[in-house]
Amino acid sequence: MRIAVTGKAGQVVTSIIERAGAGVEIIALGRPELDLGDLASIAPALAAARPDVVVSAAAYTAVDRAEGEEEAAFAVNAAGPGAVAAAARALGVPVIHISTDYVFDGTKTAPYVESDPVAPLGVYGRSKLAGEEAVIAADPDAVILRTAWVYSPFGANFVKTMLRLAQTREELGVVADQIGNPTSALDIADTVLAVAHRLHSAPDEAPRGIFHMTGNGEGSWADLAEAVFAASAAQGGPWARVRRIATADYPTPAARPANSRLCGDRLAEAYGLRLPAWRDAVKATVARLVAQKDPVA
Ligand SMILES: NC(=O)C1=CN([C@@H]2O[C@H](COP(=O)(O)OP(=O)(O)OC[C@H]3O[C@@H](n4cnc5c(N)ncnc54)[C@H](OP(=O)(O)O)[C@@H]3O)[C@@H](O)[C@H]2O)C=CC1
Ligand SMILES: Cc1cn([C@H]2C[C@H](O)[C@@H](COP(=O)(O)OP(=O)(O)O[C@H]3O[C@@H](C)C(=O)[C@@H](O)[C@H]3O)O2)c(=O)[nH]c1=O
Ligand SMILES: [Mg+2]
């Protein structure tokens, strides 16, 4: 099976490359040959890859910067993925698109299910919601996997930021009133690959539509930071004390949902897939980072 993935060095594409097993070839497509901001580049790059399945993983992910770069965020997160889905449809192959918890406003008091109303709080969330709509419009048979709070040994993420800050600080203030599901990009990779196999081997039976795909269990950003430092300290890596603060005490350009929890039951029922417990996954990634020469590079 050949899987074309958008993006070259992102957390999810790098994890998919690492986790693809025997008999699976990953073709990572990014700039310059596939630029989501250059719609004319998309169909030719995908056609040249001759994929059996397309995974739309690339995105504009700088949540705060997006507030001042609305046009760029919508080009990369909405129009681009729409063109990716249209190109996949034209090639007659299934498309899996990755979306986010930030399509919700966080006012629900329980984990979000797929049918809950969306109401993004910021430009990033609005652009990703427009991406979901563009993908479904181009290919009603698309699979959209919403994930959240992604970290990995690769790229930029909250876990690596915590380890970096701990190198020079004894205490860090971290918000304790935003809760969600921390998710390892390596677990996302395993799940995406399993869904891709089903779409390829049994296209008529594989369920389509939106599915939530996050690490099992919930916590706040402060809980995540504490878990990172506990795991790091156990391995002799950097750690800091966590001061649990309120969102109001950590002002940012973009508002974030207070409740980002996503319910994974639909993915479990449709595909038999549930991601591992987030605390175990954090330990595995932190151990790997600390074992590296520079855990924050
Ligand atoms: N990170 C997170 O916490 C979360 C992410 N998601 C979603 O998961 C998906 C994967 O995210 P993640 O791997 O963390 O993202 P990263 O920020 O790690 O990587 C983004 C990727 O997008 C690529 N990209 C950006 N702009 C363009 C463009 N114009 N043309 C082509 N490629 C481009 C980057 O390319 P290059 O390598 O060249 O820079 C990079 O490969 C995204 O859809 C994101 O919205 C959902 C929830 C949480
Ligand atoms: C660095 C830092 C952040 N924070 C807060 C700010 C914010 O509320 C929260 C998370 O900060 P970040 O900016 O790292 O996370 P953020 O960029 O909001 O992460 C989001 O990225 C996009 C791409 C998604 O799709 C989401 O699922 C989510 O993962 O932690 C602290 O409280 N203390 C700190 O020292
Ligand atoms: Mg960020």
TrEMBL record:
The keyword Oxidoreductase applies. Its cofactor is Mg(2+). It holds the Pfam family RmlD_sub_bind. Residues 1-289 form the RmlD-like substrate binding domain. This is dTDP-4-dehydrorhamnose reductase. SUPFAM superfamilies: NAD(P)-binding Rossmann-fold domains. The keyword Oxidoreductase applies. Its EC number is 1.1.1.133. Catalyzes the reduction of dTDP-6-deoxy-L-lyxo-4-hexulose to yield dTDP-L-rhamnose. One of its GO terms (molecular function) is dTDP-4-dehydrorhamnose reductase activity. It comes from the Bacteria. InterPro entries: dTDP_dehydrorham_reduct (IPR005913), NAD(P)-bd_dom_sf (IPR036291), RmlD-like-bd (IPR029903). It is an enzyme of class 1 (oxidoreductase). It catalyses: dTDP-beta-L-rhamnose + NADP(+) = dTDP-4-dehydro-beta-L-rhamnose + NADPH + H(+). Belongs to the dTDP-4-dehydrorhamnose reductase family. Binds 1 Mg(2+) ion per monomer. Pathway: Carbohydrate biosynthesis; dTDP-L-rhamnose biosynthesis. GO terms for biological process: dTDP-rhamnose biosynthetic process.
